[in-house]
Amino acid sequence: MFATLLKQLSTLVISLLGLTVLTFILSLQSETPVHQFQSDHVVVQYFEYLQFLLNGDWGTSSIHKRSVLKDFLQHFPATIELIVFAMVLAVTAGLGLGILASTRRGGWLDNTLMTSSLVGYSMPIFWWGMLLVLLFSLTLGWTPVAGRIDFAYDIEPYTRFMLIDTLLHHNQYGFAAFLNALHHLILPAVTLSTIPMAIVARMTRSSLLAVLKSEYIRTARSKGISKQRIIWVHALRNALQPILTIGGVQISIIMSGVIITEYIFAWPGIGKWLLEAVSRRDFATIQGGVLALSIIVIAFNLALDFIGIYLNPRLRRPS
């Protein structure tokens, strides 16, 4: 167990070092240096660069003249709120649809769900987002077009998580502000969750079908255990391992998709912030934002590895 955890942590350290080396090389190629180094030696400059990062100096935005790290932390809660909501939606719906399809293997429901998931996986996110806006916002008028909350609500950004901040203002607006913020969150989250939902649904179906052929499942059936208990208690736990394996890929898809989604819905998060930096050639912001997002992806993959080790006892045994 300890050896496995040590291996995962060493992988994390190597990944982070490789990432900092890459961003350091890119910073050297910039016309406007992000940091001023004291030494002329490249190796010494790299260690100075690491010291800058550890001290919270990730550069200064050439447009806003503010610290890149502070700007990132200011926009980050909006992105996390959108990603968490989208991931909960994708995992919940994806698992449910995958389980439903596996229990109706070969039937019309299975074929319909898998065809729909293939369409959802293949759909360009920018086209899908604009289509949802056209249908639900402009045609039906069910959802807002853009933003996080209506201008009628004056919400103090205590945590910068809008759903939490609206609850902190409960005495002033009741639940009206919270419901309005949730109303704004639904359409961007649906747009962002479509591709991961399709992948989770297909992986859940495939993994469950493989597990349901196992000997211990046949033994459980012979004992008269109900079909629902077999799936939810005995089979699903072992079927989750391949789904967790692709979880790292999903967070990468989510991170790339959130940039487009935030731009479409004018969501004031990291994606919109980075796109504005690219359009204005703000190199310090681009470098700092990409570095921070990459660290989040690496940390998320490490967390999924730990969850996989917990769920699979064979991974805890020394090889």
From TrEMBL:
Q: Record's InterPro entries?
A: MetI-like (IPR000515), MetI-like_sf (IPR035906)
Q: What is this protein called?
A: ABC transporter permease subunit
Family according to the record: Belongs to the binding-protein-dependent transport system permease family. OppBC subfamily.
| Superkingdom of origin organism | Bacteria
Query: What is the recorded membrane topology of this protein?
Result: Multi-pass membrane protein
**Which species does this protein come from?**
Kangiella taiwanensis
Span of domain ABC transmembrane type-1: 76-308
Localization annotation: Cell inner membrane; Cell membrane
Q: Does the keyword Iron-sulfur apply?
A: no
PROSITE patterns membership: ABC_TM1
Q: Which residues cross the membrane?
A: 12-30, 82-101, 113-138, 181-201, 243-266, 286-311
Q: Which UniProt keywords apply?
A: Cell inner membrane, Cell membrane, Membrane, Transmembrane, Transmembrane helix, Transport
**Cross-referenced CDD domains, in alphabetical order?**
TM_PBP2
